[in-house]
Design goal:
The complex is a heterodimer of chains A (223) and B (270). By secondary structure, chain A is mainly alpha-helical. Chain A has a single domain (5-219), classed as Orthogonal Bundle (MetI-like fold). In chain A, 78% of the residues lie in helices and 0% in strands. Chain A has 10 helices and no strands. The longest helix of chain A is centred in the N-terminal third of the chain and has 32 residues, at 26-57. The radius of gyration of chain A is 21 Å and the shape is elongated. Chain A starts with a helix and ends with a helix. Chain B is α/β, with parallel strands linked by helices and 270 residues long. In chain B, 35% of the residues lie in helices and 21% in strands. Chain B has helices at residues 49-56, 96-106, 111-124, 140-152, 170-187, 198-204, 235-250, 257-264; strands spanning 5-14, 23-33, 38-42, 64-69, 72-73, 82-84, 159-162, 191-195, 207-211, 218-223. A 6-stranded mixed beta sheet of chain B has the order 6-7-8-3-9-10, sandwiched between helices. In chain B, strands 2-1-4-5 form a 4-stranded antiparallel beta sheet, covered by helices on one side. Chain B is globular. Chain B starts with a strand and ends in a 6-residue tail after the last helix. The relative contact order of chain B is 0.18. The chains are: A mainly alpha (223), B alpha/beta (270). Chain A binds chain B through residues 119, 121-122, 124-131, 135, 139-140, 143-144, 146, 220-223, and chain B through 54, 57-59, 80-83, 85, 87, 89-95, 102-103, 105-107, 134, 136, 150-151, 154. The structure holds adenosine-5'-diphosphate (ADP) and magnesium ion (MG). Magnesium ion (MG) binds at residues 49-50, 86, 162 of chain B.
């Protein structure tokens, strides 16, 4: 089976205008997928940043938890699918969980190495000026860890987006999702639509990357 | 208000990790600095100068002995001191103004008053146009000024300076030395200024303390009774330089003081 860019373009147009299955349009697929990725990444940030901060600040916590983290980290999200369905049911919850798994570890490790990379002399400067532990966290460790933390979020978002197709293997309730759409196209032997869906995923990934890049450049304008 | 500083029988031992030997860095060190005096502390590299300042600032616990600020134990009641470290330690994500404000911010001084006082301090330092810039955008000399301004803004009782000018080129260095001394003449802070540059010590201070190689203790106290501004090449300066160098060299067994004096006489002059 061969396929030309022209056919992919035509399929792309069809996905936008007619939809696959008919009525289910590409922008809506994208929106549903984005919402899952956003939820998964947000969850990963909310849990991963504090864990990363704790790991970076305390040798004890690090020694206790690092083996566990290194044990779970290499297990691919795809392998979790069945467990995810058992725990969170078909649909949104499972998908978010799988995306969370993909995004979580880069965020934890980025935050952790960020905290550890902060120059201890900066901490001393704040201490001599009368700062307490809270000040040290808010005014030195957190901002100092920011570049590495943001890189972790960026990498995590990328991996989360990559996990999307696997995540939607768990099924979708409302019939929407880019990964789900690609699987439907595959079942219909519509290679052109599969490739068009891949192009869509790539484009959204690119847009996400670009947006995060803009935000980061503003946040890290001091660098 | 500038306070007096006294250090009694101070020792600091770093217990080496695992198979390292413990390092005795300070041993029985004593010094007294009356309020409002500028004291320079000279010692060779690795003699323990930074360690001494860190103990005085309360960043490291002393192994034994005590540090008193205005007669009160500094380790019991921690009081903020002004510290300008070798590496400056400006927060790179804060602008110049935000860095200078930091001390007042930590004391919960309200935003408007804080900003005003910081701006005034920047004006004193001739940095009023750089308030919005980030440290990386400044020259070395300007960064140095920012670090000093940050240390001075909360009006510390004690200003500790750890080789603050050692990374600067000659011209900038002597300009900043003059600036610092003019500022001190107006403010009369209690300053402990650490340096390995003998000329700098004599140009700036009321008293030069010479400390020995590790384990460090004070081996010579040399009063500098010269009015400011001081002529770096004048005869009194040369005599003082000879004396400080001689004491310094005695701390290093097997060295001949005279030869060092001559080879060093061609050093940088402002
Ligand atoms: N945290 C530390 N642990 C072990 N040894 C240290 C530590 N800090 C400093 N030292 C030792 O103390 C000695 C004096 O260091 P330092 O105070 O930095 O000297 P100076 O500032 O005079 O150059 C050095 O020999 C160094 O090896
Ligand atoms: Mg030093």
């Amino acid at each position: 089976m061969r396929i030309s860019p022209l056919q992919v373009g035509a399929a792309f147009w069809e996905l936008c205008a007619v939809g696959l299955p008919p009525g289910y349009l590409l922008p809506m697929h994208t929106l549903y997928s984005l919402s899952k990725v956003l939820a998964g990444v947000l969850l990963a940030v909310l849990l991963g940043c504090p864990l990363g901060l704790a790991l970076g600040a305390s040798r004890g916590i690090q020694m206790a938890l690092m083996p566990l983290i290194d044990f779970i980290r290499p297990i691919p999200p795809l392998a979790w699918i069945l467990l995810a369905i058992i725990w969170f049911g078909i649909g949104f919850g499972s998908a978010v969980f799988l995306i969370f798994l993909g995004a979580f570890f880069p965020i934890v490790l980025g935050t952790c190495s960020g905290v550890r990379g902060v120059d201890p002399l900066l901490v001393d400067a704040v201490r001599t000026l009368g700062g307490n532990r809270r000040d040290i966290w808010l005014k030195v460790l957190l901002p100092g860890a920011m570049p590495s933390l943001l890189t972790g979020i960026k990498v995590g978002t990328g991996i989360g987006w990559m996990t999307l197709v696997a995540a939607e293997f768990t099924g979708v309730r409302q019939g929407y999702g880019l990964g789900y759409m690609i699987m439907s196209a595959r079942d219909l032997q519509r290679l052109d639509a599969v490739v068009a869906g891949m192009v869509g995923i790539g484009m959204v990934g690119l847009a996400l990357e670009w947006m995060l890049g803009r935000i980061y450049r503003w946040l890290l304008r001091w660098q | 208000m500038p306070a007096s500083l006294s250090v009694y029988n101070l020792s600091k031992v770093y217990l080496g990790s695992n198979n390292q030997d413990p390092q005795v860095v300070l041993k029985g060190l004593e010094l007294v600095i009356p309020a409002g005096t500028f004291v320079a502390l000279v010692g060779l590299n690795g003699s323990g100068k930074t360690t001494l300042l860190r103990v005085i600032a309360g960043l490291e616990p002393a192994t034994s002995g005590e540090v008193r600020i205005n007669g009160e134990r500094a380790d019991l009641l921690r009081r903020p001191v002004g510290m300008v470290s070798q590496e400056l330690a400006l927060l790179p994500w804060r602008t110049v103004l935000e860095n200078v404000e930091l001390g007042l911010e930590l004391q919960a001084v309200k935003g408007k008053e804080r900003r005003e006082r910081a701006m005034n301090m920047l004006r004193v330092f001739g940095l009023e146009d750089c308030g919005h810039r980030y440290p990386r955008e400044l020259s070395g000399g300007m960064r140095q000024k920012v670090a000093i301004a940050r240390a001075l803004l909360p009006e510390p009782e004690l200003l500790l300076m750890d080789e603050p000018f050692s990374a600067l080129d000659c011209q900038v260095k002597s300009r900043l030395q003059h600036f610092l001394i003019d500022l001190w003449i107006q403010r009369r802070d209690t300053v402990l200024f650490v340096t390995h540059d003998v000329e700098e010590a004599i140009v700036l201070s009321d008293t030069v303390l010479v400390i020995s190689q590790k384990p460090a203790r004070v081996v010579d106290v040399i009063p500098v009774n010269l009015p400011h501004p001081r002529d770096r090449t004048g005869i009194p300066m040369t005599g003082l330089r000879r004396r400080v160098l001689a004491s310094l060299m005695l701390t290093r067994p097997g060295e001949k003081p005279a030869g060092f004096v001559r080879s060093n006489a061609a050093g940088c002059r402002g």
